[in-house]
Amino acid sequence: MYAVLEDAVLCFQKSQGTDAAPLAKDAEQWFFANDQRWPFSFVNICAALGLNAEYIRMGLQRWRQHPPAVSPKKRRRTVLTHTTISVAA
Predict the structure, then answer these.
(1) Closest Cα to residue 8, out of 18, 17, 33?
(2) How far apart are CA 56 and CA 22, in angstroms?
(3) Can you say whether the dihedral through the CA atoms of 14, 17, 21, 27 is positive or negative?
(4) How far apart are CA 34 and CA 41, in angstroms?
Protein backbone atom coordinates (compact mmCIF):
# COMPACT_ATOMS: atom_id res chain seq x y z
CA MET A 1 0.00 0.00 0.00
CA TYR A 2 2.89 2.32 0.75
CA ALA A 3 4.25 1.74 -2.77
CA VAL A 4 0.88 2.65 -4.30
CA LEU A 5 0.80 5.88 -2.29
CA GLU A 6 4.40 6.72 -3.18
CA ASP A 7 3.75 6.13 -6.90
CA ALA A 8 0.64 8.30 -6.78
CA VAL A 9 2.60 11.17 -5.22
CA LEU A 10 5.26 10.90 -7.95
CA CYS A 11 2.56 10.86 -10.64
CA PHE A 12 0.82 13.85 -9.01
CA GLN A 13 4.06 15.82 -9.15
CA LYS A 14 4.57 15.26 -12.88
CA SER A 15 4.65 18.51 -14.84
CA GLN A 16 1.53 19.58 -16.62
CA GLY A 17 1.90 19.77 -20.39
CA THR A 18 4.10 16.68 -20.63
CA ASP A 19 3.33 13.12 -21.65
CA ALA A 20 2.83 12.37 -17.95
CA ALA A 21 0.07 14.97 -17.56
CA PRO A 22 -2.74 12.36 -17.83
CA LEU A 23 -1.13 10.37 -15.01
CA ALA A 24 -0.92 13.53 -12.91
CA LYS A 25 -4.62 14.20 -13.48
CA ASP A 26 -5.55 10.59 -12.60
CA ALA A 27 -3.48 10.79 -9.42
CA GLU A 28 -5.14 14.07 -8.46
CA GLN A 29 -8.59 12.55 -8.89
CA TRP A 30 -7.55 9.52 -6.83
CA PHE A 31 -6.22 11.69 -3.99
CA PHE A 32 -9.34 13.81 -3.73
CA ALA A 33 -11.95 11.04 -4.07
CA ASN A 34 -13.66 9.78 -0.93
CA ASP A 35 -14.29 6.26 -2.23
CA GLN A 36 -14.20 3.76 0.62
CA ARG A 37 -15.48 0.77 -1.36
CA TRP A 38 -12.20 -0.05 -3.09
CA PRO A 39 -9.42 -1.50 -0.87
CA PHE A 40 -6.76 0.55 -2.66
CA SER A 41 -8.59 3.86 -2.58
CA PHE A 42 -6.64 6.77 -1.14
CA VAL A 43 -8.73 7.00 2.03
CA ASN A 44 -8.45 3.25 2.69
CA ILE A 45 -4.69 3.24 2.14
CA CYS A 46 -4.33 6.15 4.55
CA ALA A 47 -6.46 4.35 7.13
CA ALA A 48 -4.42 1.16 6.78
CA LEU A 49 -1.12 3.04 7.10
CA GLY A 50 -2.32 5.26 9.95
CA LEU A 51 -2.03 8.46 7.91
CA ASN A 52 -4.28 11.51 7.98
CA ALA A 53 -5.79 11.76 4.49
CA GLU A 54 -6.85 15.40 4.89
CA TYR A 55 -3.37 16.42 6.02
CA ILE A 56 -1.83 14.79 2.94
CA ARG A 57 -4.42 16.46 0.70
CA MET A 58 -3.56 19.86 2.18
CA GLY A 59 0.13 19.22 1.49
CA LEU A 60 -0.62 18.21 -2.10
CA GLN A 61 -2.71 21.34 -2.64
CA ARG A 62 0.08 23.47 -1.18
CA TRP A 63 2.61 21.73 -3.43
CA ARG A 64 0.38 22.32 -6.47
CA GLN A 65 0.16 26.05 -5.66
CA HIS A 66 3.92 26.40 -5.11
CA PRO A 67 5.79 23.63 -6.93
CA PRO A 68 9.57 23.65 -6.71
CA ALA A 69 11.37 25.57 -9.44
CA VAL A 70 13.43 22.50 -10.36
CA SER A 71 11.85 19.10 -10.81
CA PRO A 72 12.56 16.82 -7.86
CA LYS A 73 15.51 14.47 -8.31
CA LYS A 74 14.93 10.79 -8.08
CA ARG A 75 15.61 9.59 -4.59
CA ARG A 76 18.31 7.05 -4.06
CA ARG A 77 17.70 4.41 -1.50
CA THR A 78 20.63 3.67 0.73
CA VAL A 79 20.97 0.18 2.03
CA LEU A 80 22.82 -0.02 5.30
CA THR A 81 24.73 -3.16 6.09
CA HIS A 82 25.87 -4.27 9.49
CA THR A 83 29.54 -5.11 9.84
CA THR A 84 30.88 -7.07 12.76
CA ILE A 85 34.03 -5.59 14.20
CA SER A 86 36.09 -7.61 16.62
CA VAL A 87 38.42 -5.86 18.98
CA ALA A 88 41.53 -7.66 20.19
CA ALA A 89 42.13 -7.29 23.89
Answers:
(1) 33
(2) 21
(3) positive
(4) 8
| Closest listed residue to residue 43, CA positions, set 30, 61, 60 | 30
Q: What is the pTM of this model?
A: 0.68
Residue type, 88: A
**What's the burial of 58, exposed, middle or buried (CB within 10 Å: 0-12/13-18/19+)?**
exposed
50-54 — which CB contacts under 8 Å span 24+ positions?
Answer: 51/5
CA 67 from chain centre, in angstroms, equals 15
Q: What is the mean pLDDT of residues 5-18?
A: 82
Over range 14-37, report the average pLDDT: 84
Q: Note whether 32 and 64 are within 8 A (CB).
A: no
- Indicate if the pLDDT at residue 82 is higher than 90: no
Give me the sign of the Cα torsion angle 29, 31, 35, 38.
positive
